[in-house]
Amino acid sequence: MVTPTPRVGPATLNERQLRATATTLGGAGWAPWAPAKGLRCINCGALQDLDTVIYRCPECGDLLDVVYPRPTLTVEQLRRRWRRRRGSLRPIDRSGVWRYRELLPFWRRLSELVTYPEGDTPLLDAPRSAAYAGVGRLRFKHLGFSPTGSFKDYGMATGVTQARRLGMRAVACASTGNTSASLAAYASRAGLLAIVLVPEGQISFGKLSQALDFGALTLQLRGDFDDAQSLLMEIAPQLGIYILNSVNPFRLEGQKSVILELLEQCDWQAPDRIVVPGGNLGNSSSYGKALRELDDLGLLDKRPHITIVQAEGAAPLYRYFHDHPDRMVSVHPRTLATAIKIGSPVSWKKARRAVDWSDGWCTEVDEQAIADAKAVIGSDGIGCEPASATTLAGIRRLIHEGTDVPVQPDEDVVAILTGNQLKDPEYTVRYHNGDLWEEFTTQTHVVSHGRQLQCSFANPPLVVDATADALRRAIEPRLRELR
Ligand code: F0G
After folding, report:
1. What is the pLDDT of residues 448-480, one digit of tens each?
2. Ligand 1 center to 193 CA (angstroms)
3. Distance between Cα 67 and ligand 1 center (Å)
4. Which of 114, 155, 226, 437 is the most exposed place for a label (fewest CB within 10 A)?
5. Which helix (H) or strand (E) holds 364?
6. What confidence score (pLDDT) does residue 8 get?
7. Once rounded to an integer, what is the mean pLDDT over residues 387-398?
8. Whose CA is nearest to atom 10 of ligand 1?
9. Atom 4 of ligand 1 has which residue's CA nearest to it?
């Protein structure tokens, strides 16, 4: 492991030369590569040294991309290497992130790479969900099969690798639960201290239990995710701890691999549309960056439209596209899909860039639609957490209501399921028992229950006496339905 002294603050190298590659948000002007490795501002194009501890451009304050020179290998060489590594026994080759390391070359030595390993998540056919949405073909890329049960593991492999390369000893995040679980596991395995800030009483027990078990210093904040995120940005530099929220562009590098894995699983025939839930908007941003790079390398046969779905009570990006494209307005977030209960998403400009470039769109769905969609996904034998179910609800809305921009029923759609069903079993059990209520929360706490949701697809458990007769009576009607 390499432990150089971290350099804090902006670096000055080659700025004039590298500014020549300045990016614009979306459109043809978004340059995927740079003449040298570095951290490039998405707004002004200023380039900083790769191994600098910064999260935003020191010149204009905007977000940063990790950029590299264009890989020199041909399409065939890249595909062949990636395919070959699948058969290797080395953990870094088996990793669904590091297998694609030609597109993540921020490291110097293979020995630096941190892996669980992660990735290798399935792509699942879902005929009942497809019929419910009204789309010809729908598959789910299920990232809930990751080691800690969410897509965050893809980004933690690269984020924690960079933390170790920088010689950081403590890593931290604000989280609605999944980032904290993933950070805690990866930090622990890499020998670093994890510090996690979660909104008190507003994350699921499954996720909280993971952070505790993995030994993270777990701070339950009397505030919401957005408070936690801005407080962490304030104190982390003073305390010398490394932030691994998605504002850190090294996190997003790892999440690019989801797209690589997906395209490999599709034998490089890209789907027409990729649908993803939107919270802090890191995931959709990384998919945009991956597709932009692959397009330039000739690995894309078409541009899949990136379609972001937000929960109605936490939909600042949707409001931005729909109501006021001149400015992003934060909201006070409200949704039972606690993973995406975020009112002020850090990566919204990168997400907008991804949507613009891919000719995609953003929509919102209400609590009823999320709950029903989750049960329908379940009926395909696929479990997911509520935030992931926004995808199916979103596709259905776009097809049936014809809102915003049209989605064609004959499209080949892949929806991203971001988290495992067992992260939040209380939600699922409540739905099937017909006992799921919308919640009203203040900044800190749930204050009252709102509308009761209809549980049209509920599959409630039956309580039966412990006799053979009672069991027969409970089972036989279902058997008759099979005839
Ligand atoms: N789905 C799940 C299950 C999540 O945990 C998150 C985000 C998202 C979707 C949204 O992804 O933020 O990249 O747009 N969870 C973060 C966390 C915020 O702290 O675990 P995004």
Report:
1. 678 999 999 999 999 999 999 999 999 999 999
2. 22
3. 24
4. 437
5. strand 361-365
6. 37
7. 97
8. 279
9. 339
CA-based nearest residue to 442, from 133, 211, 222: 222
Answer yes or no: is pLDDT of 195 > 80.
yes
The answer to whether 202 and 176 have CB atoms below 8 angstroms apart is yes
Looking only at the bridges linking them, the beta strands covering 64-67 and 38-41 are antiparallel
User: How many angstroms is it from 183 CA to the middle of ligand 1?
Assistant: 13
In testing the pocket of ligand 1, which one of 140, 208, 275, 280 has its CB within 8 Å of the most ligand atoms? 280
Note the pLDDT tens digit of each residue in 124-175.
Answer: 999 999 999 999 899 999 999 999 999 999 999 999 999 999 999 999 999 9
Is the Cα torsion angle 362, 374, 413, 81 positive or negative in sign? positive
Nearest CA to ligand 1 atom 19: 175
- Long-range pairs for 454-458 at CB < 8 Å and ≥24 separation? 454/368, 455/371, 455/375, 455/431, 456/372, 456/375, 457/372, 457/375, 457/376, 457/378, 457/379, 458/375, 458/431, 458/432, 458/433, 458/434
The conformation of residue 200, written as its DSSP 8-state character, comes to T
Can you tell me which atom of ligand 1 is nearest the CA of 286? Answer: 13
Q: 279 CA distance to ligand 1 centroid (A)?
A: 5
Ligand 1, atom 6, residue with closest C-alpha: 339
CA of 481 to the centre of ligand 1 (A): 40
Answer yes or no: is pLDDT of 347 > 50: yes
Contact call for residues 306 and 274 (beta carbons, < 8 A): yes
Residues with C-beta less than 6 Å from any ligand 1 atom: 150, 152, 175-179, 246, 277-283, 339-340, 385, 387-388, 418-419
Question: Which domains are seen in the chain, by residue range?
Answer: 1-70 (no CATH), 123-148+251-452 (3.40.50.1100)
Cα-based distances in Å from 342 to 61, 225, 421, 433:
21, 6, 20, 28
Q: How far is CA 421 from the centre of its chain?
A: 15
pLDDT interval class at 2 (50, 70, 90): very low
- Rounded CA-CA distance 25/135 in Å is 31
